[in-house]
Specification:
Strand 18 and strand 19 form a beta hairpin. Strands 21, 22, 23, 24, 25, 26 and 27 form a seven-stranded antiparallel β-sheet that branches. A six-stranded antiparallel barrel has the order 1-2-3-6-5-4. A six-stranded antiparallel β-barrel has the order 7-8-9-12-11-10. It folds into four domains: 72 residues, Beta Barrel (Thrombin, subunit H); 108 residues, Thrombin, subunit H (Beta Barrel), CATH 2.40.10.10; 94 residues, Roll (Pdz3 Domain); 93 residues, PDZ domain (Pdz3 Domain, Roll). The longest helix has 24 residues. Helix content is 21%, strand content 33%. It has eleven helices and 27 strands. The protein is α+β, with helices and mostly antiparallel strands.
């Protein structure tokens, strides 16, 4: 019995020793589990997406998968058009050794299975070499088929077959607030996708195209766009291309700060067809200079509300003059399309070739009329005579005042001398000699030096007559026709305070 107890005791000591050894090896803690047994985070997502949310997310994923292969990266070697050190004094031989070419990059959209690609004109401008990279990493040399600087569009071509082709949608159906995606190659980062909404449509007068006939009618978006995105696609959630990304509101470093701008795809389609067919665009023109109708102009001509486009000037020998359009007419529609912004009319006409006839609905003298206008090609610019301000008369005639100050409007006007009229090549008119800051006149863009030749559609002979017209229109507004120091005329509305 004692012997048995000794054996049991010895065995117990051995087992205990093994256990204590294990504890020593593990640092007196629990035995470490394997990596597979380690639990990280909770076992359930905090939110369960409903069918609508899952479908919404899936739309972005599917568009990115389907459209990205249709967007290409464009690498360009172009002629250097300026001296980067033009403000520095450098040795002539060093200047001659400077690089004569520069590299740039952008994006493009495949529009045919055999390799036609649309992009921005500024991407391939002055190009001596164009290389296109596809989503499958193949590269091709490209040929520039045609460019249109007035819309900043270009078409290039690669020798390829069976390419994935983009679906070009209908930009007339774009709505402010709808979701969109920008797909391109910003900062040389291939196949980048960003998302946002349409922030505005019909955005113009940005001064991006440095030409008096430049066509600016952009879709504005807050989807992030950066240098290199130019020529890429702005698409809706069906994957339809609704615009071509072309410009950004940028910081001093040229990077995105909140808004990008895209050319509407309907304009792109019209221009692209012309470029592929002819290598250039033979665009038709109405032959008018136009401006927006503001509230003062609307009141002065009897429009119930400020809408339509005011014809400021006719191009001599142009289509509008031949169709009996008159200065001061308001264009309300073109081919039943309402036009309330100058760029809307310009963009519509830009889709038409020379020889096309359009119908204009016009407001004139309180009546609505229609005119058919056959568009002409752009000819040489009409001569505009440059005139100088020869000063104004400070003498009274027949006891009438030579100067009148209209304090409630903030406007001071003076009579013109016979010499002034000869210089300006006019037979009547008065000159604005002063405009008070933040006045009614100042708010309506009246400035010192403008010549007022008509008021309320009546010729103005002197300041006394002008004052009578103003007094007769108190509580209303009048339409003024003015001439600047370069001989250019335009119409302006002027609100007249009530008694």
């Amino acid at each position: 019995m004692i012997k048995l107890k000794s054996i049991v005791g010895a065995t117990t000591l051995i087992v205990l020793g093994i256990f204590m050894g294990a504890l020593l090896v593990t640092g007196y803690g629990d035995i470490k589990p394997s990596y597979a047994d380690v639990a990280l985070g909770t076992n359930k997502a905090p939110v369960s997406l409903d069918a609508n949310a899952s479908s919404f997310s899936k739309a972005f994923i599917e568009v990115a998968e389907k459209v990205t292969p249709q967007i290409v990266q464009i690498e360009v070697v172009s002629k250097r058009t300026n001296n980067p050190h033009e403000n520095l004094i450098i040795p002539f031989d060093l200047f001659n050794n400077m690089p004569k070419e520069q590299k740039g990059s952008g994006s493009g959209i495949i529009i045919s299975p055999d390799g036609y690609i649309v992009t921005n004109n500024h991407v391939v401008k002055n190009a001596s070499k164009v290389t296109v990279g596809l989503g499958d990493k193949r590269t091709f040399s490209a040929k520039v088929i045609g460019t249109d600087p007035l819309t900043d569009l270009a078409v290039i071509k690669i020798n390829a077959k069976d390419l994935s082709v983009a679906f070009l949608g209908n930009s007339d159906e774009v709505k402010v607030g709808q979701w969109v995606m920008a797909i391109g190659n910003p900062l040389s980062l291939t196949s980048t996708v960003t998302a946002g909404i349409v922030s505005a449509i019909g955005r113009g007068q940005l001064g991006l195209i440095k030409d008096r006939y430049g066509i600016e009618n952009y879709i504005q978006t807050d989807a992030a766009i950066n240098p290199g995105n130019s020529g890429g696609a702005l698409v809706d959630l069906s994957g339809s291309v609704i615009g071509i990304n072309t410009a950004i509101a940028a910081s001093g470093g040229g990077t995105y700060i909140g808004y990008g701008f895209a050319i509407p795809i309907n304009l792109v389609k019209a221009v692209t067809k012309e470029l592929i067919a002819n290598g250039k665009v033979t665009r038709g023109y109405i032959g008018v200079e136009i401006s927006e109708v503001d509230d003062a102009i609307a009141k002065s001509i009897g429009l119930a509300a400020p809408h339509g486009i005011l014809v400021q000037k006719l191009v001599k020998g142009g289509s509008a003059e031949a169709a009996d359009i008159k200065e001061g007419d308001v264009i309300l529609k073109v081919d039943d399309k309402v036009v309330d912004e100058p760029n809307t009319l310009q963009t519509y006409i830009a889709t038409k070739t020379a020889g096309t006839t359009v119908k204009l609905t016009i407001f004139r003298e309180g009546k609505t009329i229609t005119k058919s206008v056959k568009l002409k090609a752009l000819n040489d610019e009409p001569e505009i005579k440059t005139v100088k301000n020869g000063g104004s008369s400070d003498e009274s005639t027949d006891g009438n005042p030579a100067e009148v100050s209209l304090d409630d409007i903030g406007l001071t006007v003076q009579n013109l001398s016979n010499n002034d009229k000869s210089i300006f090549n006019i037979d009547s008119g008065i000159i604005i000699s002063d405009v008070k800051p933040y006045s009614i006149a100042g708010d309506q863009n009246l400035i010192k030096g403008l010549i007022i030749v008509e008021a309320d559609k009546k010729k103005v002979q002197d300041v006394k007559e002008f004052q009578k017209i103003i007094d007769s229109k108190k509580g209303s507004a009048i339409l003024l026709k003015v001439i600047d120091d370069k001989g250019n005329s335009r119409f302006l509305g002027l609100a007249v305070p009530g008694k």
